[in-house]
C-alpha cells in the first residue's frame, strides 16, 4: 500500500511475492533477473523459498542485466531471455506455434 512501510499490518503478503509465508502449493514458476537488478537478491531468496517448498522452479540470472532489461528488444540479453522464457512455456504447455 502506498504510504505505509513495507510489510506493515494490513498489507497483503502477496503484494511482494517473496513475503508469502509459505510457498507450498504454488504453481510451477519461471523467474528471471538481471545480475545488476536492484531486486536480484530478493528474487534469489524467493526462488530458494519456492525450491525448498518443492515448487518446480526455473531460475535465470542474466549477467549484466539491469531492472527492465527486457525492454530493449534488440539486445542480446533480451533475446536470450525470450528464448529461455518461450522454451520454458513450451516445456510446460507443449509445443508453441507462432
Folded structure, characterized:
This protein is of the alpha+beta class. The chain is 32% helix and 12% strand. The protein has 2 helices and 2 strands. It has helices at 40-52, 76-93, and strands spanning 29-34, 57-62. It has a two-stranded parallel ribbon with strand order 1-2. α1 links the parallel β1 (29-34) and β2. The longest helix has 18 residues, at 76-93. The radius of gyration is 15 Å and the shape is globular. It starts with 28 loop residues before the first strand and ends in a 5-residue tail after the last helix. The mean pLDDT is 87.
Could you give a quick summary of the protein structure above?
By secondary structure, the chain is of the alpha+beta class.
Low-confidence stretches: none
Structural class: alpha+beta
Indicate the overall shape.
globular
Helicity level? 25-40%
Compute the number of helices. 2
Strand order, biggest sheet? 1-2
The share of residues in extended strands comes to: 5-15%
| N-to-C series of helices and strands | EHEH
N-end to C-end Cα span: 39 Å
- According to DSSP, the number of beta strands is 2
Largest sheet: 2 strands, parallel
| Mean pLDDT, all residues | 87
Q: What is the C-alpha radius of gyration, as a whole number of Å?
A: 15 Å
List keywords for this structure.
98 residues; 2 strands; alpha+beta; 2 helices; single chain
Outline the fold blueprint.
Blueprint: E1 29-34, H1 40-52, E2 57-62, H2 76-93
Parallel strand pairs: 1-2
Amino acid at each position: 500500500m502506498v504510504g505505509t512501510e513495507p510489510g506493515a499490518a494490513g498489507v497483503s503478503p502477496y503484494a511482494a511475492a517473496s513475503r508469502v509465508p509459505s510457498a507450498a502449493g504454488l504453481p510451477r514458476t519461471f523467474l528471471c533477473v538481471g545480475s545488476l537488478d536492484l531486486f536480484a537478491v530478493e528474487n534469489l531468496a524467493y526462488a530458494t523459498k519456492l525450491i525448498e517448498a518443492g515448487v518446480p522452479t526455473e531460475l535465470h540470472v542474466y549477467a549484466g542485466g539491469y531492472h527492465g532489461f527486457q525492454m530493449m528488444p534488440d539486445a542480446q540479453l533480451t533475446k536470450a531471455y525470450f528464448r529461455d522464457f518461450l522454451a520454458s512455456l513450451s516445456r510446460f504447455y507443449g509445443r508453441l506455434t507462432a
